[in-house]
């Protein structure tokens, strides 16, 4: 049965890919043989990354969270900046943060990802590359020592920074496969220019950056910059961790065109309208292979909507802190599966915006069959989640691994250190 489902998925996948190539050509200047080959390889990688048993991934994730919570009995709820000893409060951070020698073994980070992006290793098997220059002057032949030069190198690479810097990208930063951007130990901002594009590639880790004030642009080598902070386009095995993001012209993080096997964790989002878009079109059925974990993030001040907005795929939204929204928190169309577990939702004062969820382009007779499930979520200030689908159906979760052991009351602890960290070499991070 599983093999049959996979074959059906493959057929629909390549059928939709054949239909979408003309639109890709419209979006990418001179869709030459190189980019067409890269797109086809990316589609095959995405199918390989697709998990036909997504529930097993959420089971494993929940077990890890449960172990981390039971191992940390602290009930401290201090306000303001934490100044005590290293306190790693979730299983991803516990894997690396409190080791004072993290800078000597940076690549340990690659073993810490959980969720659908769990197989992502970035540049673990490559050499280190040290970014020494903040300039971005030559798009065709990037200068050695710049971030743009680093991300276009062949083969795996672990990219770090010699010092703190603000990088203004003149065009989108088009990455290549098997790369890690690791900003630990420096205060690195991608700001006031174009954003990062992860297009038709696989195996990318982005960690520790500040990304903000990204603007639209024209004249790009591949396409015009759309103003996203991070754009994931036809890519697979991507992990975004401990990134602080705000005030981009379009989305903070968009994942489209059949992207899959993605984890977004420990990030802090502020001051933005449309935060995250997963799936760009109701007519693009290729996004049915999209599988994304959103975990331990803080959705903070100045946010409006799309945290995330989903289409087609399977989305595990777990142990996030939703302290601000103006319209809604989680939305979608085209029958996505959304499993919301152990989040904290604090509704805004506006009586008309208390609902966490929002369905688009469907009548109630249609969306009542979409599986949107809330388990262990903490609803505050009148927040409410409208579930749908067959809620009586037994989900294939182990009774030992259900999120009940990690209710929304734990979220403030689990997300306490979200966003870019002020790591110092020789000290726990």
Summarize the structure.
With 429 residues, the chain is an alpha/beta fold. It has helices spanning 2-27, 33-49, 54-70, 91-94, 147-151, 364-367, 411-414; strands spanning 127-131, 157-161, 165-167, 173-174, 179-182, 188-191, 196-199, 202-207, 210-212, 230-233, 236-241, 244-246, 253-256, 260-265, 268-270, 272-274, 276-278, 291-295, 298-299, 303-305, 309-311, 314-318, 321-322, 330-333, 337-341, 344-346, 357-359, 372-375, 378-380.
Biggest sheet: strands, sense, closure? 10 strands, parallel
Give the class from helix and strand content and strand pairing: alpha/beta
How far is the N terminus from the C terminus? Answer: 46 Å
What is the rounded Rg? 20 Å
The fraction of residues assigned to DSSP E strands is 25-35%
Runs in which pLDDT lies below 50 for 5 or more consecutive residues are: 17-29, 73-79, 396-405
Say how many strands there are.
29
The proportion of residues forming helix, as a percent range, comes to 10-25%
The tally of helices reads 7
What is the overall silhouette?
Answer: globular
Mean of pLDDT: 86
Q: How are the strands of the biggest sheet laid out side by side?
A: 1-2-5-8-11-14-18-22-25-28
Your description of this structure?
By secondary structure, the chain is α/β, with parallel strands linked by helices. The chain is built from 7 helices and 29 strands. It has helices at residues 2-27, 33-49, 54-70, 91-94, 147-151, 364-367, 411-414, and strands spanning 127-131, 157-161, 165-167, 173-174, 179-182, 188-191, 196-199, 202-207, 210-212, 230-233, 236-241, 244-246, 253-256, 260-265, 268-270, 272-274, 276-278, 291-295, 298-299, 303-305, 309-311, 314-318, 321-322, 330-333, 337-341, 344-346, 357-359, 372-375, 378-380. A 10-stranded parallel beta sheet has the order 1-2-5-8-11-14-18-22-25-28. Strands 3-6-9-12-15-19-23-26-29 form a 9-stranded parallel beta sheet, with no helix packed on it. Helix 5 (147-151) links the parallel strand 1 (127-131) and strand 2 (157-161). It is globular, with a radius of gyration of 20 Å. The relative contact order is 0.13. Residues 17-29, 73-79 and 396-405 have low confidence and may be disordered.
């Amino acid at each position: 049965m599983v093999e049959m489902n996979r074959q059906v998925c493959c057929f629909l996948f390549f059928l939709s890919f054949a239909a979408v190539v003309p639109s890709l050509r419209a979006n990418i200047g001179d869709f030459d043989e190189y980019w067409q080959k890269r797109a086809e390889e990316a589609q095959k990688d995405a199918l390989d990354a697709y998990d036909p048993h997504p529930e097993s991934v959420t089971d494993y994730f929940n077990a890890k969270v449960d172990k981390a919570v039971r191992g940390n009995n602290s009930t401290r709820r201090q306000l303001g900046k934490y100044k005590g000893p290293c306190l790693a409060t979730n299983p991803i951070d516990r894997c690396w943060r409190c080791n004072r020698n993290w800078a000597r073994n940076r690549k340990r980070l690659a073993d810490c990802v959980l969720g659908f992006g769990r197989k992502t290793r970035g540049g673990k098997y490559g050499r280190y590359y040290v970014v020494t220059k903040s300039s971005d002057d030559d798009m065709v032949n990037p200068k050695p020592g710049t971030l743009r030069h680093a991300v276009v190198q062949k083969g795996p690479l672990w990219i770090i920074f010699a010092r703190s810097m603000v990088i203004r990208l003149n065009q989108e930063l088009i990455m290549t496969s098997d790369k890690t951007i690791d900003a630990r130990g420096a205060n690195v901002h991608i700001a006031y220019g174009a954003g990062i594009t992860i297009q038709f590639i696989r195996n990318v880790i982005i960690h520790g950056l500040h990304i903000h004030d990204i603007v639209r642009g024209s004249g790009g080598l591949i396409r015009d910059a759309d103003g996203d902070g991070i754009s994931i386009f036809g890519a697979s095995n991507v992990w975004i961790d401990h990134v602080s993001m705000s005030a981009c012209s379009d989305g903070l993080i968009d994942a489209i065109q059949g992207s899959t096997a993605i984890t977004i964790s420990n990030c802090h989002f502020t001051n933005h309208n449309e935060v995250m878009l997963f799936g760009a079109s109701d007519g693009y059925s290729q996004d049915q292979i999209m599988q994304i974990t959103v975990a331990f993030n803080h959705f903070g001040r100045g946010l409006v909507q799309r945290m995330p907005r989903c289409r087609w795929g399977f989305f595990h939204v777990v142990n996030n802190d939703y302290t601000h929204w103006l319209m809604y928190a989680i939305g979608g169309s085209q029958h996505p599966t959304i499993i919301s577990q152990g989040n904290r939702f604090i509704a805004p004062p506006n009586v008309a915006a208390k609902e966490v969820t929002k369905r688009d382009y469907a009548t109630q007779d249609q969306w009542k069959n979409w599986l949107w499930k809330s388990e262990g979520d903490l609803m505050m200030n009148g927040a409410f989640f409208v579930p749908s689908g067959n809620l009586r159906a037994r989900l294939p979760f182990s009774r030992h691994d259900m999120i009940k052991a990690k209710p929304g009351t734990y979220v403030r602890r689990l997300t306490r250190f979200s966003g870019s960290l002020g790591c110092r070499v020789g000290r726990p991070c």
